[in-house]
């Protein structure tokens, strides 16, 4: 009887020690990565301004002394490098294939912004061995540890390529416009990310509006739908007015906030950047960069 009790106690002690060890290891892993914020800029419908918003916000965050990198995760045509007039000859695919190093493919954008060109090669990773994947996670993590913010310009919609990045990001910014289909597509995207991928926090930027009031109205329509049908609240992050300076900046292949910092749309973006740069996040939102990449790469297993 007593021997039994002693054995049970020993068992409990052993389990406690194991749990303590595991939790210490978890904390150490969390500490190992700097608290880089991984922010995905995404949308249900294409052409709503994701790439322009991601590029300009990233420029503005650099100006606010945040080490920022934009990860171009889109397969579309008007990518970050085109918009910012920088030349991306190689991308993550070449790193995956071992043809280039990560440092060789990184591009310097305006004002110290760094760009990691098209990650659309990630779905090709199924043919990498486990060892190769782990090396890749380490390389990418090392890069992330020097950053404050990694902004991901995703494609539009609910294809798996878009989902990889939204799933792994801790913060999701949904971009929508007053166009009715943009709103229904934003709802559809949020629904999938919430129901299938358990994402709970979404923030909305309404782009191409005439006024802040119009943006609010769009926001209320979307958040009413998500609270009513999904029991989920979407947060309002800001709006960007329809501004022909944006088109002009794209034509000039320069960031709007660099050439027309006083343009109406640039002022709107500055407000959003201020919010992002100054907010404090709870523990849930901070995650190590290693965890981010590991997530992405694990999703590709098999
Ligand atoms: N606030 C704005 N005012 C005027 N034009 C804008 C504004 N925002 C974006 N645009 C224009 O809309 C077009 C689409 O923008 P952008 O390429 O950033 O969209 P996207 O969501 O990234 O598209 P895709 O889904 O194809 O990746 C561009 O020509 C851009 O100049
Ligand atoms: Mg785009």
Structure description:
With 302 residues, the protein is an alpha/beta fold. The protein has 2 domains: 32 residues; 265 residues, 3-Layer(aba) Sandwich (Rossmann fold), CATH 3.40.50. The protein has 13 helices and 8 strands. It has an 8-stranded mixed beta sheet, sandwiched between helices. It is globular, with a radius of gyration of 21 Å. Magnesium ion binds next to helix 2.
- SSE-based structural type: alpha/beta
Low-confidence sequence ranges: 22-33
> What is the tally of beta strands?
8
Proportion of helical residues: 40-55%
Strand proportion: 15-25%
SSE string = HEHEHHHEEHEHEHEHEHHHH
Q: Specify the CATH architecture of the largest domain.
A: 3-Layer(aba) Sandwich
| Full CATH superfamily name of the largest domain | P-loop containing nucleotide triphosphate hydrolases
What's the CATH class of the largest domain, please? Alpha Beta
- Which shape, going by the Cα principal axes? globular
* Measured distance between first and last alpha carbons: 50 Å
Give me the secondary-structure topology.
Elements (H helix, E strand, L loop, with lengths): L1 H31 L4 E7 L6 H14 L4 E6 L6 H4 L8 H5 L5 H4 L1 E2 L5 E3 L13 H15 L4 E8 L3 H9 L2 E6 L3 H16 L6 E8 L2 H19 L4 E7 L2 H8 L4 H4 L4 H15 L10 H11 L3
This protein binds adenosine-5'-triphosphate and magnesium ion (MG).
């Amino acid at each position: 009887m007593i021997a039994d009790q002693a054995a049970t106690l020993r068992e409990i002690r052993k389990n406690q020690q194991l749990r303590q060890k595991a939790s210490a290891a978890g904390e150490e892993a969390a500490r190992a990565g700097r608290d880089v914020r991984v922010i995905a800029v995404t949308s249900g419908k294409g052409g709503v301004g994701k790439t322009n918003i991601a590029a300009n916000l990233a420029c503005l965050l650099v100006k606010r002394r945040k080490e920022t990198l934009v990860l171009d995760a889109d397969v579309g045509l008007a990518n970050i490098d085109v918009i910012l007039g920088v030349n991306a000859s190689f991308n993550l695919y070449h790193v995956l294939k071992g043809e280039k190093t990560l440092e060789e493919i990184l591009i310097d954008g305006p004002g110290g912004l760094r760009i990691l060109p098209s990650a659309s090669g990630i779905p090709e990773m199924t043919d990498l061995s486990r060892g190769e994947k782990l090396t890749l996670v380490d390389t990418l993590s090392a890069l992330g540890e020097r950053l404050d913010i990694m902004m991901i310009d995703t494609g539009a919609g609910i294809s798996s390529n878009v989902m990889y990045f939204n799933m792994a990001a801790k913060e999701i910014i949904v971009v929508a416009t007053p166009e009715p289909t943009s709103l229904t597509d934003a709802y559809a995207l949020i629904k999938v990310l919430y129901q299938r991928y358990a994402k709970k926090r979404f923030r909305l930027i309404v782009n191409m509006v005439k006024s802040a009031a119009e943006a609010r109205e769009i926001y209320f329509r979307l958040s009413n739908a998500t609270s009513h049908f999904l029991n989920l609240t979407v947060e309002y992050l800001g709006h960007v007015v329809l501004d022909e300076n944006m088109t002009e900046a794209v034509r000039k292949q320069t960031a709007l906030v660099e050439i027309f910092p006083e343009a109406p749309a640039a002022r709107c973006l500055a407000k959003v950047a201020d919010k992002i740069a100054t907010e404090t996040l709870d523990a849930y939102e901070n995650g190590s960069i290693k965890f981010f990449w590991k997530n992405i790469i694990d999703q590709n297993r098999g």
